[in-house]
Amino acid sequence: MKLNLDIACPSKPEWVAAVMDDFDSFLQDHADCERKASATAMSFVAKYPDRLEIIPELIEIGVEELEHFQMVYKVMEKRGVQLAHSIAGDPYIKSLMRLQHGDVMKRFMDRLLIASVVETRGAERFKMVAQAQTDEELAKFYKMLWISEAKHGHVYVKMALNYFPEKEVYDRLKYWVKMEGEILDSVEVRPALH
């Protein structure tokens, strides 16, 4: 059984060009995204403490994302780049969140599937960064991240399958993959993960 779907459309080459042109800004945004990814996993634990089947994996993801934040911070330190003073709003994430279902249970499934799609996009983009890197150490670092993010994309779908029928999960996932592609196509290209 496949636990996630491929993304609907690939990221534009202009995106990776923008990242490579202003890699320090990308690092600041990347660090923020890792913090937010950790917070997202832990918010599921806080909001759904009765979902015992998924709590251990959510904690694992939360810790792993925080470790990624620490790794990105070390890269930033080495380059003399400070963390951003505030976490900017992410138009891509905001657009996805606006489309969540109103029903409480369906919203739970939507949140899991949005996390899956976001992690899958992150994997695709980290792969692009790894391939564009001329610095061997950074190329290796982003390859490791791309593999990790791809795994997280699978885990969130697996979590949804604990609580919802397979057909319902995959039908809704198709919707999210389609919407994510449309949203990505509409947001401004910038040196940021999304």
Structural write-up:
- The protein has 194 residues and is an all-alpha fold.
- The chain has one domain (13-81, 90-186): Ferritin.
- Helix content is 73%, strand content 0%.
- It contains 7 helices and no strands.
- It has helices at residues 13-21, 23-47, 55-79, 91-97, 104-132, 136-161, 166-186.
- Helix 5 packs antiparallel against helix 6 and helix 5 crosses helix 7 (166-186).
- The chain is globular and about 45 Å long.
- The two termini are 28 Å apart.
- 35% of the residues are buried.
- The mean pLDDT is 93.
Shape: globular
CATH superfamily: Ferritin, core subunit, four-helix bundle
CATH topology: Ferritin
Oligomeric state of shown chains: single chain
The chain-level structural class is mainly alpha
Count of DSSP E strands?
0
CATH class: Mainly Alpha
Please give the largest β-sheet.
none
Low-confidence stretches: none
* CATH A-level architecture: Up-down Bundle
Elements, N to C (H/E): HHHHHHH
The total tally of domains equals 1
Mean pLDDT across all amino acids: 93
Helix content: over 70%
